[in-house]
Allophanate hydrolase (Marinobacter halophilus), 232 residues
Amino acid sequence: MLEPVSEDAVLITLAEAIDDALPARITRLTQSLHDANLPWLRDLVPSYTTLLVVYDPVRVDFREVTSRLRAIVKADNTQTERTVQATGDLVELPVYYSVESGPDLAALAAETGLSTAEVIARHSALEYRVHALGFAPGFAFMGEVDPTIAQPRKPTPRKRVPAGSVGIANRQTAVYPQASPGGWQIIGRCPVRLFDPQHLSRLKAGDRVRFRAISREDFLAAGGELTEICEP
């Protein structure tokens, strides 16, 4: 579905609900639009189920934009589901899961009736899709976590969550690429740098991510830091 959202933007909605195949499909559609070399195209903003297309209204009118977009979307729809599922890199991220590095781990375990070891095992057992990037540069929203460990955001966000913090918010999981305020349930920390201005984001929409539990010693050896979290 295509709909105008402003005088210079059209929203392409590909589905009504999050699906594991969508990030790869949206990434491919974004690439197709880039490859089309449309002179009036200004920006593309992917999200969970949509792609926002920003265009230059001085160079083109809404009717021509929607006509071109429909043709490109139709061509994209001819791609097979197998092709969609095959796209995206597989990225493994080491995580030091502990009460020391994840201040919400014990409380989340108690809330779900699981041991901390079971929470860690269930979080690291799945392969996650990167559905969207936002909130902060390089912040990748991934899903979906095992429903038995899904927990809502904290009612009051923390003032500072260290870079590398691994969190859960409902059925989503993410790694904070930089220190920032945040309200996710923090269960561990990753030593891998996920964003820097020169190389941009380590992750992109459509990528697949697996988390691997590591020891405190391995975390520190990989350059991880155990800086404190600032509570509200």
Observations:
- The two ends are 42 Å apart (CA to CA).
- Helices lie at 22-35, 62-77, 81-86, 105-112, 116-124, 216-221.
- The mean pLDDT is 89.
- The first helix runs from residue 22 to 35.
